[in-house]
Every structure is written in C-alpha cells, then in structure tokens.
Amino acid sequence: MLAEDLAPNRLEQAKLAIMETVDRLRGDRVGLVVFAGTAVVKCPLSLDYGFFRTALEGISTDSVSRGGTMLGDALRTVLRDIFDHQDKQYKDVILITDGEDHESAPLEAAQTAAEQGVRLIIIGLGDEKEGQRIPVLDEQGRKAFLKYQGQEVWTKLDADTLRAMAKATPGGRYLPVATGTINLGEVYQDLIASADKRELEAKTIEQYEEKFQLFVAAALALLILEGLVAERRQGEGAS
C-alpha cells in the first residue's frame, strides 16, 4: 500500500476515501478491523465517529505484528465476528485491495459469504499488469525500493481472484479503480444505501495490503491489511 501510483500512496489514499465516506454517514455504526496473519479490532461497531476517526488515523503498516496475506481469513472473520447473527435478507461487503492472497482460500470464503446471503463488492487498486515497486528508506534515510535476495519486490493486483470472489456471491461486483480516484462514497450510495430503498443491512470492509518481503520470518510481514467494517441500518435514524 506504500506504492505511489496513487498520491501520496495507496494506503493514505484509501484512508482518505474511508474518512470522507464516514463523514457522510448518519446513524450508521462503524468499526475498524486491522488484520494481516491475524485480525485485531481497533474500533468495535459504534456510532462514535470521533473514536473511529482516531483509530483510522492511527492505522499504518505497523498496525499488525504477525505477517501473512490472509484475505480469505479476514473475510471469514468478518462473517463470523462482525456481522450480527440475525437472519436479514440484504448484506453487503465492500472489499478494497491492492495485492494478492497467499493460501487463505479466498474463493471458499466468498462461497461461504454467498451461502450467508452476503454480496461482495470488490474495488481493486493498482496496476494488474506491471505492478509497482515498494518505496522504503535506506540506512542513510534516502529513498530506495524494497529488495528480496537482491531483486526489487513488485506488488501486483490479482484481479482474476478478485473477480472470481465477487462473481461467487449473488449480485457481486468487481470495480477496477487501477490508479484512478477512489470514490468510495459513490459506491456506497449507489450500490448499498440507495439499493431500491430496501430495508437492508450493509457492511463494508476495506482491506489494504503492504508487501515487505517474500518467504521470510513472520516478524516481517508479507502483507499487511487494514480493514474498515461499517454497518448501515436504514430506518434506525439513518438519513
């Protein structure tokens, strides 16, 4: 997420998009989940937007100690721990990602979501063909690019997997933003909040990935993912 094809970088651009969307919410419970190899709840579902903003501002690539690219596990965590265990007809998950998944069975997780009546709306960031290098600072504090075994590490969007995940769920959508502007507010308004004016429950998870090294000690994360989970309930004070 530190690739700079989205200014100032993908992580900050995504955080800004989330913040702007939260600023538009009224009567919507929001929560913040940070995860890589494990998941950590930074803000439980709440109407306390101030606390949520503080939690979001503090998110960085150091937010989770254990590494891993566990997109499937993250989705399973949302399905198990974040959604209310109530039988409601309409549920949506918005997933924002810029990277790849490594061996967490994301398609199986998407199928589980479908079985629970959850639709996936997936937003892909970055270049899926060439990819981007990861900027770091060297020992002298100068800008360099992350290397593994002498070779520069490139982060590339796995669009095929993301498309398949979205397709696995009823009405799922994959939206390739590439290096354009993240208009999360428009996605939320058009695909969730205004969906036929139905009484619905909508949840969003924004997940961001940062590649550090490949196949090294767990102390150095392969990918780090930050996730926003938001729950919308129309008819409960929502505007």
Could you characterize the architecture of this molecule?
The protein has one domain: von Willebrand factor, type A domain (Rossmann fold, 3-Layer(aba) Sandwich). It contains 6 helices and 13 strands. Helix 3 (71-82) packs parallel to helix 4 (106-115) and helix 4 (106-115) packs parallel to helix 5 (159-167). The longest helix has 13 residues, at 10-22. The chain has helices at residues 10-22, 49-57, 71-82, 106-115, 159-167, 184-193; strands at residues 29-35, 39-46, 91-97, 118-125, 132-133, 135-137, 143-145, 147-148, 151-152, 154-155, 173-178, 201-209, 225-233. Helices cover 26% and strands 28% of the residues. With 239 residues, it is an alpha+beta fold.
